């Protein structure tokens, strides 16, 4: 073999090794990129499945017009699948709620911590004992011993501030997040 042939063979071998290294690097990069794309395709639906459903988001906030409620009347609205009791309290009901000795209550909350405006009470209408729906929003309903709400399933009595006063319920009726958008519209949620 001549020197020229040897040099040519050396050059060809060097190019072949460089080509093999470049090809391997390209394949590794391509495989890595496809792995990242595949992982993103799998992760996206998984993460989206953890988001709230569209029907839940639609009920995330509601606005309730309370202009039709006279003092002493109440209405029930649905928010996030739960009933919300909105009561336009009379001066007598406000006085009864404010005059309670908080130290005697099971779940110690003054009326002022439960209302934004004394004449309006907004509570989630789910008994804190076993999740029943108390009665007391209609004039013909039983209002319990404290003129608020009564849960006939197990006998919990709530006062005019939605605080548990008697029976097995451990906590007061919950107060949802709400605000007054105007004098007659309440935004819940």
What do these coordinates show?
- It is a single chain.
- By secondary structure, this protein is of the alpha+beta class.
- It folds into two domains: 1-51; 56-188, Rieske Iron-sulfur Protein.
- The protein contains three helices and nine strands.
- Strands 1-9-8 form a three-stranded antiparallel β-sheet, with no helix packed on it. It has a three-stranded antiparallel β-sheet with strand order 2-3-4, with no helix packed on it. A three-stranded antiparallel β-sheet has the order 5-6-7, with no helix packed on it.
- A hairpin with a 2-residue loop joins strand 2 and strand 3.
- The longest helix has 47 residues, at 3-49.
- The termini are far apart.
Walk me through the topology.
Blueprint (H helix, E strand, L loop, with lengths): L2 H47 L4 H5 L3 E4 L8 E6 L2 E7 L2 H8 L21 E5 L22 E5 L4 E4 L4 E3 L11 E3 L4 E4 L1
Antiparallel strand pairs: 1-9, 2-3, 3-4, 5-6, 6-7, 8-9
């Amino acid at each position: 073999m001549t020197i020229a042939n040897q040099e040519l063979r050396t050059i060809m071998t060097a190019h072949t090794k460089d080509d093999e290294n470049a090809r391997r690097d390209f394949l590794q990069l391509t495989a890595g990129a496809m792995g990242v794309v595949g992982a993103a395709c799998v992760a996206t639906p998984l993460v989206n499945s953890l988001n709230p459903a569209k029907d839940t988001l639609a009920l995330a906030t509601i606005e309730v017009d309370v202009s039709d409620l006279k003092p002493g009347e109440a209405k029930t609205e649905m928010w996030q699948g739960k009933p919300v009791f909105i009561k336009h309290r009379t001066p007598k009901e406000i006085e009864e709620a404010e005059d309670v000795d908080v130290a005697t209550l099971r779940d110690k909350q003054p009326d002022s911590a439960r209302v934004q405006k004394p004449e309006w009470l907004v509570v989630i209408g789910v008994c804190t004992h076993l999740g029943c729906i108390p009665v007391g929003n209609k004039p013909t309903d039983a209002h319990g011993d404290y003129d608020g709400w009564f849960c006939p399933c197990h006998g919990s009595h709530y006062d005019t501030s939605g605080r548990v006063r008697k029976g097995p319920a451990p906590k007061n009726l919950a107060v949802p997040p709400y605000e007054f958008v105007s004098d007659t519209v309440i935004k819940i949620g």
